[in-house]
Design a protein that fits this description.
Layout (H helix, E strand, L loop, with lengths): L58 E4 L1 H27 L23 H4 L12 E11 L5 E8 L4 H7 L2 E3 L2 E2 L2 H16 L6 H6 L2 E4 L27 E4 L8 H8 L4 E3 L11 H7 L5 H7 L5 E2 L5 E2 L2 E6 L17 E2 L22 E2 H6 L3 H4 L10 E5 L4 E4 L5 H12 L2 E7 L5 E2 L2 E13 L6 E4 L6 E6 L9 E7 L3 H8 L11 H15 L7 H7 L8 H6 L8 H14 L14 H4 L2 H16 L14 H4 L9 H18 L7 E7 L11 H8 L4 E8 L3 E11 L6 H4 L19 H19 L5 E8 L9 H12 L3 E3 L5 E3 L4 E8 L12 E6 L3 H24 L30 E4 L14 H7 L3 E6 L20 H20 L9
Parallel strand pairs: 1-21, 6-7, 7-8, 24-25, 24-28, 28-31, 29-30
Antiparallel strand pairs: 2-3, 2-18, 4-5, 9-10, 11-16, 12-13, 14-15, 14-16, 17-18, 18-19, 18-20, 20-21, 22-23, 23-25, 26-27, 29-31
Length: 973
């Protein structure tokens, strides 16, 4: 690859957009390949100026919440494990991970020659100062948590990586005072010495011996530099990254005899000299990360940094020769996780008691016992090599053939190294790492490890996807933000009275971020309240009053309250807009139509409603009479219904409905699923169903969506819970025909608005296919891909195609389960926006629609037919439809990314958010432990008519408000 002309972060955007062509932006299932989080500029939507700004071309912003809650505690947690291994090496303890199998990692390692190894355990003056350049990045997991992740040591040489951290831009070094402060900390912590400015450091005997090209060192280091020829007389502390074997003999002897200190400890640099990983590096440049990565145990990143699992596994085979194996390095099993696990996003699923699976099965197996209901092979997110350190598989770059060939080699037996690898964050076509030094030592007083997390903060490297050697990065520098009230939220407020860690801190930051994202305009008071994760009965004023109980610093509580009052409007807005659609939805006829439509879709003629459910296995065949899949018939039903609605509205030729067809493509073969097989042989295909309702501006559209497939019933499948293993589709009353029905009933309302000329832009009603496992958000991924590649071509029943590629989606509301009123926390629903400013903007419209509804409810309940009614009740098996009840005021919580109860990352909504589509999830107050989710109880007995019909009415009103707003595009207010 040609050298990149570094123009700072703007270099990352060269060629953007490169993906607006057919097939240029693949989106595989996250369950088969967890992709990079995209930062700065997503394929769709506007650039995120919270990370890169025009006035700082060399900078990348790091937020306070990342630094305080992830990076600093993560560095300490990781650092203790690394220091433990490095001190064991220096003390001559041989049974540890640095040696590797048979000591191969240190054989011929220039940083640990024989004369140094012979002195291990005898270097009484050694304080084990480390200055290890680590590679960090943000990755995402199967619960949508984007967290800083430890990848290992820098792939660049340690001297280059260390000194780059003393710059602010390509040609601007940080002030030498930061260098002085840094080494003063090292001297005081490791040696108990006091030192101040550069003159004192020089007098204390600090010198620097560069490895060769000293142009990488800042100019203010000149006075400290020496050459390999000396003089060496005044040296007490020598900062050098040279391999010990290449140091002048006089320096070696002085160190071994305790007359000088080498900084860093020479044994801490062995990771750059291991012949094993250097061999692997020839085929995979990230290999240099792995030796250091192996020293740290797997961690999910809850309250720190994420660390993926790495190690070795041994696959026995009768014909396989024995290897020189260090059993301490063998890690043959893997704790699988998936996004449907019944734990909260703030909980660590690795602490759950579960059965682990063999590594080889986790990586490759598509057998039923390995897949279960929610698991797929993980080979694409893994790197694998053999005992000779020859690369077998670089998962993120692998194709189906390479995966298959690797599986065959492993099944033949042997010793294999591996690392689960979730790709680093990306901007454009560049992968981004932060090379940040791990600086630590053994404290001069108590001998315990301690760490320095201040300057130097390191630097950032960005590698183009075509830079296969990763030797031509764009370089940036971190800008760790220090905003007063963000830091106060994170440092001054404790967890003592919180339901989960940092609840108060995250609530405060939700308000601060919402204020920032809406242009620093005061937040409406009701919106501010709904942004907080609180008990339902607690008011905003009560929460503000109680800030003091979450901190011992009363001044901090008072200051925070006063500041929050300046970013929140002082009074509740009583001048709500007039409703647009509630005259059509706040009626008994709407309730009855909503109920009966769900009942037909869930309990009528459609049985097998999972995309994979062409029934092929004997166990399921024995329990299901109908063996063809019904997803085609459901789609046909929607199309026919919409065509009839269009005709009844007199909108033929103006509104239209059809399908967006595509093929189910995967990285692995799933021959046990008849639906998947039909896609491969061409007898079946998948499709999203789309209805287009015209507005005045045909170049903009508001999308209103659902998913219309249902999941397998876990209580029937799971043998551990008494199931038989049969893959039978759930009825899907709540998940997700409560949403599908809402789309169907919205169509005549929106058509009527279109006919009256009240829609400023189009409305698209989309039924997405394949949200449930094993297809895994298939329809959402395909729809996003068509939007990105500008290839949205609607096939209508007449056989023609209508090209919609020139229309911009300015907002998308996706519904997933809106009919169940949670038993232990009534009358709450989610308005969960994606991570963009535009997503929060359209979430505000949903909040407004909710406020209008709740304001209207008392008036509605005073009318004759509702005046003396009580609350709604669920049906029993003998009843047909619930009796009329009072209209229900429901509480829509605006759950942003800082609220761990947001469910957007467990649905199709995550795909849209990741790709930059302004998106909001509408979902009930999801109870992860209730009956009625992916089981036999997802029936009409689980639907609350008063709650669900109110929720449907609010969702329809929201879409109507955005579609009829005269504000252009992303400027809805």
């Amino acid at each position: 690859m040609e050298d990149v002309k570094n123009r700072g972060w703007k270099s990352l955007m060269e060629g953007f957009p490169w993906f607006d062509c057919d097939g240029c932006y693949p989106l595989p299932a996250y369950s088969e390949f967890m992709p990079s989080p995209i930062i700065g500029q997503k394929p769709l939507g506007k650039a995120d100026n919270s990370i890169f700004t025009d006035d700082d071309p060399w900078g990348m912003k790091i937020t306070e919440i990342e630094e305080e809650l992830e990076l600093r505690p993560g560095i300490s947690h990781i650092g203790h494990q690394i220091m433990n291994n490095i001190t064991r090496l220096g003390r001559g303890l041989t049974e540890h991970h640095i040696h590797g199998h048979g000591g191969k990692n240190l054989t011929g390692n220039p940083y640990w020659p024989a004369e140094l190894a012979a002195k291990a355990g005898k270097l009484e003056h050694e304080r084990f100062v480390v200055m290890l350049p680590m590679m960090l990045s943000r990755t995402q997991d199967d619960k949508g948590r984007v967290t800083w992740t430890f990848f290992g040591s820098s792939i660049h040489d340690p001297e280059f990586s260390f000194w780059k951290g003393f710059y602010r831009s390509e040609n601007e070094a940080i002030d030498n005072a930061d260098f002085d402060n840094f080494f003063s900390s090292v001297f005081k912590g490791a040696y108990g010495l006091k030192a101040g400015d550069s003159g004192q450091l020089y007098k204390a005997g600090l010198r620097i011996l560069p490895c060769g090209d000293d142009s990488r060192l800042p100019g203010w280091t000149d006075k400290f530099r020496i050459s390999v020829t000396g003089p060496f007389d005044d040296i007490r502390f020598l900062l050098t990254f040279k391999p010990f074997s290449e140091l002048p003999r006089e320096i070696q002897d002085s160190y071994l005899n305790g007359r000088i200190h080498l900084l860093p400890f020479p044994g801490s640099l062995v990771f750059w000299g291991m012949p094993t990983y250097e061999r692997l590096r020839k085929h995979m440049p990230e290999a240099r990360q792995i030796a250091l990565h192996n020293l740290v145990a797997r961690n999910r990143g809850i309250g720190g940094m994420r660390v993926t699992q790495s190690g070795w596994f041994h696959e026995p085979h009768p014909d396989n020769a024995k290897h020189n194996i260090n059993e301490e390095l063998i890690l043959n099993s893997f704790h699988r996780t998936h996004r449907w696990e019944k734990i909260h996003r703030y909980q660590d699923e690795l602490n759950q008691s579960v059965q682990k699976i063999k590594i080889a099965k986790a990586l490759f197996s598509t057998e039923p016992d390995s897949l279960g209901l929610y698991d797929k092979p993980l080979a694409r997110n893994c790197q694998i090599w053999d005992h000779n350190f020859d690369l077998l598989l670089n998962g993120p770059r692998a194709n189906r053939k390479e995966i298959y060939e690797t599986e065959k080699k492993i099944l033949n037996g042997g010793l294999f190294g591996y690392r689960f690898f979730y790709p680093p964050m990306k901007t454009g076509r560049y992968s981004i790492y932060w090379i940040r030094p791990l600086v630590g030592w053994l404290n001069a007083g108590n001998g315990e490890p301690e760490f320095h997390t201040g300057l130097p903060a390191g630097f950032i490297t960005c590698y183009h996807e075509k830079d296969s050697k990763m030797d031509n990065p764009v370089e940036l520098w971190p800008r760790i933000q220090q905003r007063k009230f963000y830091l106060s939220a994170l440092r001054d407020f404790t967890n003592g009275h919180d339901h989960y860690a940092h609840q108060t801190s995250r609530n405060i930051i939700s308000l601060l971020e919402a204020w920032r994202m809406q242009g620093e305009k005061p937040l409406k008071r009701t919106l501010a309240h709904r942004l907080l994760n609180l008990a339902k009965h607690k008011t905003l004023e009560q929460w503000l009053d109680e800030l003091g109980i979450h901190t011992s610093d009363k001044d901090a509580a008072l200051g925070m309250r006063q500041y929050l009052e300046t970013i929140i409007e002082p009074a509740v807005d009583v001048n709500l807009p007039e409703p647009i659609t509630y005259d059509r939805t706040a009626t008994r006829s709407f309730e009855e139509a909503w109920w009966n439509e769900i009942k037909y879709l869930a309990h009528g003629e459609f049985v097998n409603k999972d995309n994979a459910d062409v029934i092929t296995d004997p166990v399921t065949r024995s329990q299901v009479k109908k063996q063809e899949r019904d997803i085609e018939y459901v789609g046909n039903y929607f199309i026919n219904r919409y065509r009839k609605i269009i005709a009844e509205a007199g909108m033929e030729g103006k509104a239209f409905c059809g399908e967006l067809p595509f093929k189910w493509q995967t990285d692995f073969e799933y021959s046990l699923f008849g639906g998947w097989m039909g896609n491969q042989d061409g007898s079946l295909y998948e499709r999203n169903i789309l209805m287009v309702i015209p507005g005045k501006n045909r170049k903009e559209a508001v999308v209103f969506g659902d998913h219309y497939d249902t999941a397998y019933m876990e209580d029937v499948y799971d043998k551990g819970s008494g199931g038989t293993g049969a893959r039978i589709s759930a009825n899907g009353a709540d998940d997700n025909f409560s949403a599908s029905t809402t789309l169907l009933l919205s169509a005549p309302i929106f058509l009527d608005l279109a006919r009256q000329g009240k829609l400023e832009r189009d409305i698209w009603l989309i039924h997405l296919t394949g949200e449930e496992f094993p297809s895994d958000c298939m329809g959402a991924r395909n729809f996003c891909r068509k939007l990105i590649e500008k290839n949205v071509k609607l096939r209508v029943p007449e056989g023609n195609e209508i090209d919609l590629s020139g229309t911009e989606v300015v907002g998308l509301y996706v519904m997933d389960m809106i009919g169940h009123n949670r038993d232990n926390d009534h009358n709450i629903f989610q308005i969960s926006p994606g991570k963009s400013e535009a997503s929060l903007r359209i979430a505000r419209e949903a909040h407004t629609a909710n406020m209008i509804w709740n304001n209207l409810v008392p008036q509605l309940n005073k009318s004759g037919e509702r005046a003396h009614l009580g609350p709604g009740k669920r049906v029993t098996a003998a009843e047909n439809i619930p009796q009329p009840a009072q209209h229900l005021a429901i509480h829509g919580e605006v759950r942003t990314q800082y609220n761990p109860h947001s469910s957007i990352f467990n649905t199709d909504g995550q795909i849209f958010s990741d790709m930059g589509v302004p998106v909001v999830l509408f979902m009930e107050n999801y109870d992860i432990s209730r009956q009625g989710y992916h089981d036999t109880h997802d029936t009409m007995e689980n639907i609350d008519l008063d709650y669900g019909s109110a929720f449907a009415a609010i969702a329809i009103e929201t879409v109507a408000r955005v579609a009829s707003s005269k504000q252009a595009g992303d400027s809805f207010s």
